[in-house]
Amino acid sequence: MAKKNRYGLILAGGRGTRFWPLSRRSRAKQVLNFLGDRSLIQQTVDRLGPAIPPERIWIVTNSHLRAEIIRQLPEVPPAQILAEPAQRNTAPCIGLAAHILQSLDPDAVMGVFPADHFISRPAEYRRLLKPAFETAERGHIAVIGIQPRWPETGYGYIEFPPGTRPGTLEAVKVKRFREKPALPAAKRFVKAGNFYWNAGMFFWKAGVLLDALRRFEPDTAAILDSLPPFAGRGFHAAVTKSFPRCANISVDYAVLERAQNVMGVAAGDIGWNDVGSWHAVYELMPKDAAGNVFRGGALVEASAGNYVDAGGKLVALLGVTNLVVVDTPDALLIADRDRAQDVGLLVKELERRKKEELL
Amino acid sequence: MAKKNRYGLILAGGRGTRFWPLSRRSRAKQVLNFLGDRSLIQQTVDRLGPAIPPERIWIVTNSHLRAEIIRQLPEVPPAQILAEPAQRNTAPCIGLAAHILQSLDPDAVMGVFPADHFISRPAEYRRLLKPAFETAERGHIAVIGIQPRWPETGYGYIEFPPGTRPGTLEAVKVKRFREKPALPAAKRFVKAGNFYWNAGMFFWKAGVLLDALRRFEPDTAAILDSLPPFAGRGFHAAVTKSFPRCANISVDYAVLERAQNVMGVAAGDIGWNDVGSWHAVYELMPKDAAGNVFRGGALVEASAGNYVDAGGKLVALLGVTNLVVVDTPDALLIADRDRAQDVGLLVKELERRKKEELL
Q1: Is B299 on the interface with A (CB under 8 A)?
Q2: What is the CATH number of domain A6-273?
Q3: Nearest CA distance, B350 vs chain A (angstrom)
Q4: Theoretical Cys-Cys bridge with B17: which of A37, A114, B236, B344, CB 3.0 to 4.6 Å?
Q5: How many angstroms separate the CA atoms of A59 and A111, rounded?
Q6: Longest Cα separation, chain A
Q7: Residue A75 CA to its chain's centroid (Å)
Q8: Which three-class secondary structure state does DSSP give residue A20?
Q9: Biggest alpha carbon distance in chain B?
Q10: Nearest CA among A278, A313, A274 for reference residue A297
Q11: Which DSSP state fits A13?
């Protein structure tokens, strides 16, 4: 039974440039549906549904994406889908949402969720929400840790007490947060067994988060505190005017690494994947006997290990291996699959060339 | 000064499946313009122009291509652009053209030219036409030999007398024709120095060719002889009815290998290329510093030796080498450049799947 003061905040402001040319400013990764029929943000709302119904889902995105997200999520009230007036990091935008929720419901407890991750076992995942929310309701900050499957250097880690076992559905006091490690440290973390990936899922009372910001980021907190109530006149104008003056800082740096009352829930196997590149999508998709993934028609001769997404177009492969091929009406990407994480470099080059129509 | 009884016959019935997906039944290789602004058949007519003006050019093609060729060559009278009623090899279709020319001009001398080859030095090439036509006017059969640049096993060879030097503009008696050789023989041919590639360029009086057919292929000759004159009533109906009964044989087998009066002109460097695959197009095109060829916009990161033709679409390459990428609105080819000659296999598979819209 969903508790009425539990809210979901979905952070959907990312650009997902690594999924260019499918992702563009107005069609970022979270609104794409390369994994299943529903986009990643739709899957996020679906997955939370039994625990947090859509009428208590709030979304912070940007002005390029808001219209598409409203279109994709008719079950979420459009007034709860906010566009940040300027791109800031997660601390100001979570703070803004906390300010709004607090003004609407002084008992509000928030779960913060990325819009663009994939979770293959949603029922297992939802079981984690109960201890996380209950911990938050007792006034703590709660986080979910994902058991590492390899020594990833692209994620932050959460150090749990030694001996913490995954899947026990208990919140334990977190020892500390570790920033993205170099490879030797990442290997040590994985070997030690009590280090978990920080997947950006946080739980707190709105008031607890605002208090933490007042303590650790007083300037940003003062800006938020000066805003009129959400329902009142002039709210949006005040946000547009003052939000850009907030500090450009992540909630991890601003709050989590500094707070003393952080509790963690160590997840068991929930099939979490942050879908970081075309390579990750390739890994998640069913493959033919030669390890090819095709979205759409294909003609294959002596080719293996390729990921091909060309809409409805027929793609013929002849003697090629380990490629990522993504075709759209105005741009075609062909990349070595091992270089998929560098697709963002191409987007930076397009920005340099001011190719606005392709961004 | 162009002699008035010299005619050009351009054979334009090929499909060019190795250039799929750009080439289709109604847009075969000879009507594509991947080498310059003019299509290969336009370049062929342009190249002959000073020696054989368009009003004395005749073209045999098929029903899929005739309309496009008429559109591309407004300077050639449409009545001289014929569609063979059935796909036969070169002997019947050259015989048919000889029959027509003979009926219009009893002194007609014909040069036969493929529609889909590229020649980078057309002025040098045209110098060969004079000795070739003069030899034909003396009642011989004349051929042009291309000095081999590598031991190609995909072409036939013409054996000239030992010591024949290229570029002397003299016709000499050909010793014999050699079919496509295996590699050891091809290497011997290149080393010997008096073997030249047979590029399918032949010269004869229309009457000499018809006499040769009467001798070597009497059934086919009888069919041609039974046709009414070109200008007369019922010609096209008679062709449609009887042409399919002609032997399916090349003029090389039917006439050249059997005739005793074949003279050859050994070409110097005329920059001949039969443009046999995307790899050949790649070789002919200017390249960037990393050896990439792009038709259209490109974004390149750590990629080399690629051929990319995607119309106006931007193509981004990331960490890929030696690919052929050809994009069209309904089909996309990505091939290893070393496998470019096998593109025809993909077309065969499309035929097997009855994908008529892509053929």
Answers
A1: yes
A2: 3.90.550.10
A3: 8
A4: B344
A5: 12
A6: 65
A7: 20
A8: coil
A9: 65
A10: A313
A11: -
DSSP type of residue B252: I
Tell me the C-alpha distance between A135 and A171, whole Å.
Answer: 7
Which residue in A has a C-alpha nearest to residue B316's C-alpha? A333
Instruction: Quickly list DSSP for A225-264.
Output: HTSPPTTSTTHHHHHHHHGGGS----HIIIIITT-S-EEE
Closest CA to A88 of A141, A189, A199, A13: A13
- Quick check: B98 and B227 in contact, CB under 8 A? no
- Specify the pTM: 0.90
Quickly count helices (H) and strands (E) in chain B. Answer: 11, 18
CB of B41 within 8 A of CB of B113? no
- Closest-CA distance of chain A to residue B327, Å: 9
In angstroms, what CA-CA distances link A123 with A51, A284, B101? Answer: 10, 19, 82
Walk along chain B (359 residues) and give the pLDDT tens digit of each residue: 568 999 999 999 988 899 999 999 999 999 999 888 999 999 999 999 999 999 999 999 999 999 999 999 999 999 999 999 888 899 999 999 999 999 999 999 999 999 999 999 999 999 999 999 999 999 999 999 999 999 999 999 999 999 999 999 999 999 999 999 999 999 999 999 999 999 999 999 999 999 999 999 999 999 999 998 887 788 989 999 999 999 999 999 999 999 998 999 999 999 999 999 999 999 999 999 999 999 888 999 999 999 999 988 999 999 999 999 999 999 999 999 999 999 999 999 999 999 999 99
State the complex-level ipTM.
0.90
Helices (H), chain A: 40-48, 66-72, 90-104, 122-137, 183-192, 206-216, 218-225, 235-242, 251, 278-284, 343-352
Chain B residues within an 8 Å CB radius of A313:
329-332
Strand partners, A158: A177, A196
Residue type (1 letter), B234? G
Domain B6-141+199-261 CATH superfamily = Spore Coat Polysaccharide Biosynthesis Protein SpsA; Chain A (3.90.550.10)
